[in-house]
Amino acid sequence: MAQDDEKTIDQLNEEADIAADYLEGLLDIADYDGDIEMGIRNNRPVVQIVADDNDDIKHLVGKNGEVVDALQQLSRLAVQQKTGERSHLIVDVDGFLKHKRQHLRDIALDAIDEVRETGEPVDLKPMNSFERKVVHDLVREEGLRSRSHGEEPNRHVTIYLKASAVDDDQHYDDEYDDEADETGDVEA
Fold this sequence. Notes:
Blueprint: H1 9-30, E1 35-41, E2 44-50, H2 54-61, H3 66-83, E3 90-93, H4 96-118, E4 122-123, H5 129-141, E5 145-149, E6 156-160
Parallel strand pairs: 2-3
Antiparallel strand pairs: 1-2, 4-6, 5-6
Helix pairs in contact: 1-3, 4-5
GO molecular function: RNA binding
């Protein structure tokens, strides 16, 4: 299936079901109690793990969301193995992505305010591509422009005032591939 082709609701639900089964198996192996919730947001299957035990949740999130990232990649591979197609599945653990997105928005809004006050560009700390995308999207919404600079893992975003109408077409120049774009494009 071409990347531009949209999947049907049934295909997205199938991907969520496959991922949920896979994650339930992993939780059983790790002896973690957790509920699996499935849905579709922004034309993507979403699987969320919700647990009552805060210690289990902390382990499933990991430092800076590294475990969530790993669970998502493994789940995407499980879906691809069953369907033969690449998945844009999002895996979240107890709302981690919503909190992460809000934190990134706060950082970006502070930088946007600084750019507006000083007129000078502001460099943010290095971020992964999901984090950069959140920032680029917010900068565009706020009417400024941004650009990513540097090499991974030190790639960062610089926020600028919009210089002219020509800049309208160049909101950001980051490279997004669906493997690195997220730990989630989940609307909060």
